[in-house]
Amino acid sequence: MKSFKFLLTAGTFVMIILFDLLSNQSAMAQKQIPLEDFFKNPEKTGYQISPDGKYYSYMAPYESRMNIFVQQIGKDKAVRLTGETDRDIAGYYWANKDRILYLKDNGGDENFAIYGVDKDGKNLKCLTCFEGVRTQIIDDLKDIPDEMIISLNQRNPMVFDPYRLNIKTGEMKMLAENPGNIQGWMTDHAGKLRVAIAIVDGINTQIQYRDTEDQEFRPVLTTNFKESVSPEFFDFDNKHIYATSNLGRDKSVVVKFDVANGKEMEVLYENTRYDVSSVFYSRKRKVLTSASFVSWKRERHFFDQQTKTMFENLYKHLPNYEIGISSSDDDENMFIIRTYSDRSLGAYYLYDFSKNQLTKIHDVSPWLDENEMASVFPIEYEARDGLMIPGYLTLPKGLTMESARNLPVVINPHGGPWARDNWGFNPEVQFLANRGYAVLQMNFRGSTGYGREFLEKSFKQWGLNMQNDITDGVYWLINKGIADKNRIAIYGASYGGYATLQGVVVTPTLYAAAVNYVGVSNLFTFMQTIPPYWKPMLDMMYEMVGNPEADSVQFRATSPALNAHKIMTPLFVAQGANDPRVNKAESDQIVEALRKRGVEVEYMVKDNEGHGFANEENRFDFYRAMEKFLAEHIKK
Questions:
Q1: Phi/psi class of residue 58: alpha, beta or left (left: φ > 0; alpha: ψ in -120 to 50)?
Q2: For residue range 380-390, what is the model confidence (pLDDT) as tens digits?
Q3: Sign, CA torsion 66/91/358/293
């Protein structure tokens, strides 16, 4: 403001059997790492540097909850600024050189409030603590140190109005009243509210614009939601905007956009295979710096030689890791750098650009030895209709695609569903691999980053072709000899939980066990219990998921709770009682339906959690139960 063939001659058959046994023994013999090491809070994480470059801050556990600490650079002692004990702080940033703001909700209800605290721990104040109200940040106003622009759904739970907020006193002034269809707001570099993104006629996206805050917003571009211009930020004259756009094309590209007239001016960068997802700029030098996209890893295109030189220097310092910039000082000379890989949560470094000097600050999880972790391999397979499905296969340590044979496997479809899996360190996946399981993650149709056509192939395909993509991945593993067809489980969260349930409905003999974590079970009731601020987008959801009335036959066929009589697979269900996205009733329904039939189902509910378990002790309980459940059914 992300086929191997063997000729089974008599002479090779025995060798292959022996090779399989030795490979699997190697996987099973790996060092078993304590479960808590994968899922406990990081030792220190979320490092940021102060605007004046004199301090860095980080998050670390206090009373088993993630809190904020500040340390002067070059000193050994840190000051703890917060003492939250009920729930982790969700995120924070330096508002100015003296004050930090952070977000926190209650029990997973996702009604985040903003709190402010001085860097010495004084003057702690909740700035937006309103019952049942969610706070969103529009602009942190770097050049106006004591103010920021936020939006609140205080006036109407369905819509968010923009406010200018004094971060010291909590005084607020409404900048505009949302007429009911605005889903996003955008400021220029002077902090003036100039652009609004609206939903009109239920399924059309509209960019609205004004030259000054004294004017009314006027529509400048209206498109069907399937194609759009997504504003990133204004140019440095505050006249035009930089944006990503897929207007008239399959992939999103970087464009300069004449916002006053609603027209693209020029394409600045495009990739023919992947959507460009992000664009970055230098606030100090006022230039575009880079754009990024995700193939199987994150990749960058550089607009600016200085930024390119900096990353080249960093990769020389850290050749075996992916690199991200966590924050910088106002002079853009001192940077906090974060590294990661498929086998490491990485570390934080302080980087002095002028000296090309890199100083390690801290490992995120020093108790995890990356040499004991498993490798994540990019893969691709063909779905039954010919669509190529990319994904990632993680094998127990020491195994390769060639040597992995007849393994127990956990199929792990991602949530969203309009999201994607990426290459990097995933504690769930590494934990499962350490226990001897292979893990397959697939970016089924609808996953983001692969273009509009790939996305639209998922519309109204919950439980249908989207599910087929997952099933086809299972058969791909079986046909390659990697998976033992009798020891395959499926586990997913949110949409992945839905796909887990639908998987044991439509292919009841394919999986030996299933774990559903905060997943949808009934499409009718799911649509009826969405958060109020999703309701302006309901017509879009009808087009993407389906309409409960017009598509009622399909909904009945693709709602696992309504087809529970087909399920015979042992099931473990976990749910947060305060989940605002997937209501607890979704899990209650499937559990009740199965227990009535005598099907084995284990049910875990945490009363102080929402859409996923954030509190450390609850994560431990969940993964301990999942470990035991999987061992009973597919370890053997």
A1: beta
A2: 999 999 999 99
A3: positive
pLDDT tens track for 322-356: 999 999 999 999 999 999 999 999 999 999 999 99
The type of residue at 81 is: L
Distance CA 235, CA 79 (A): 39
Distances in Å between the Cα of 560 and the Cα atoms of 466, 563, 586, 593 are 15, 5, 10, 10
Task: Round to whole Å and give the CA distance between 46 and 96.
Answer: 17
Q: What is the β-pairing status of strands 483-493 and 571-576?
A: unpaired
Instruction: Record the pTM.
Output: 0.91
Taking the C-alpha atoms of residue 513 and residue 519, their distance in angstroms, rounded to an integer, is 16
Q: Is the peptide bond before 417 cis (omega within 30 degrees of 0)?
A: yes
How far the first Cα of the chain sits from its last, in Å, is 52
- Tell me which residue of 116, 176, 119, 126 sits closest to 147, measured CA to CA: 116
| Encoded amino acid at 198, one letter | A
Burial state string for 491-523 with b = 16 or more CB within 10 A and e = fewer than 16: bbbbbbbbbbbbbbbbbeebbbbbbbbbbbbbb
Kindly report, residue by residue over 543-562, the tens digit of the pLDDT. Answer: 999 999 999 999 999 999 99
Q: What is the 3-state secondary structure (H, E, C) of 297-333?
A: CEEEEECCHHHHHHHHHHHHHCCCCEEEEEEECCCCC
Q: What angle do CA 57, 48, 83 make, to 5 degrees?
A: 35
Residue with tokens 């000054």: 212
